[in-house]
Amino acid sequence: xxxxxxxxxxxxxxxxxxxxxxxxxxxxxxxxxxxxxxxxxxxxxxxxxxxxxxxxxxxxxxxxxxxxxxxxxxxxxxxxxxxxxxxxxxxxxxxxxxxxxxxxxxxxxxxxxxxxxxxxxxxxxxxxxxxxxxxxxxxxxxxxxxxxxxxxxxxxxxxxxxxxxxxxxxxxxxxxxxxxxxxxxxxxxxxxxxxxxxxxxxxxxxxxxxxxxxxxxxxxxxxxxxxxxxxxxxxxxxxxxxxxxxxxxxxxxxxxxxxxxxxxxxxxxxxxxxxxxxxxxxxxxxxxxxxxxxxxxxxxxxxxxxxxx
Length: 309
Description:
This protein has 309 residues and is of the alpha/beta class. It has one domain: Glycoside hydrolase/deacetylase (TIM Barrel). Helices cover 44% and strands 12% of the residues. The strands form two sheets. Strands 1, 2, 3, 8 and 9 form a five-stranded parallel beta sheet that branches. A four-stranded mixed beta sheet has the order 4-5-7-6. Helix 2 links the parallel strand 1 and strand 2. 43% of the residues are buried. This is Polysaccharide deacetylase family protein.
C-alpha cells in the first residue's frame, strides 16, 4: 500500500509546466450540485444535527432539496444550458427515479457522493470499501443508462488510506476530496493507475457560506464573481489554466430567495468566452491525456532536490 505522504506530489504553481485548456480557454468552470440522500434513521453511531436520531428538523430541511429545491434549480440550469457534475448520494438513483431521470435527460455526469450522506467511509476495512465501490458502479450501470462513475467526493468528504487505490481499481480517475490546488494534480496509486485530484470548493459552496455562515445572496454572487475574475486574471498573467468549482445543494440554493443568485452567477460565466464550461470528468480526461505525465515528472524532479517533507 502506498502511504499518503507518498501519494501527494508537491510542486508550487510557480514554475510548473503550463496547464492549458481546450480551445485556448483560460479557466475551466464546473458546477457541482450535491443531490444528497439522508437516512431518516442513520446507521448506528452516526450523528447529524441536533439530537441522536431521528432529527426531524435536520432530515426534513434536506428532504426539501429533492422534493422542491432540485426542481427549481433545474429551471436555472436549463435557462443557461449549464452542464453539471452531480455529487450524488447513489441511493437516489434507485429510490427517487424522478430526480434520476431528470438528471439523465440533461446528460449530467454522476460523481459518487457515497450511498447516503450519513454513511461515511471512515473505519471501513479494505474489503468493506472494495464492496462499496462495486456497489456504487453497479447502481450507476443499472439505473443510469449503463454509465460508469469516473470520480468521487466522499460521503461527508470521508475516506481511508485505501481510498485512492480502490477508486482506480474500480475505474475512477478523479477524486474531489483534495481541495489543495487550483489545478488537477496527480495522486499516486499503488498500481500506478492514474488518478487526479479535482479542485472542488468549500469557499464557493452554498452550505458553508449561505447556510452555516449566513452570507446574503448578494455576498455569495459577489464572492463567486470575484473568484472567477481573479483566476482569469492570474491565468492570463502566468499562462496556467485554472479551475473554478461552484458547489451547490438543492436544499439551500433551491430556496426561492436564493434562485436569483444562481442565475446571476451562471449568467456571468456564460457571458465570458474565456471560460471552458464543462464537467469534472472532462477536466480530468484532458489533464490526464495532456498534462499528467509532465506534471508528475516535474514534481518528482523537484522532490529529489528538496529535503523530505
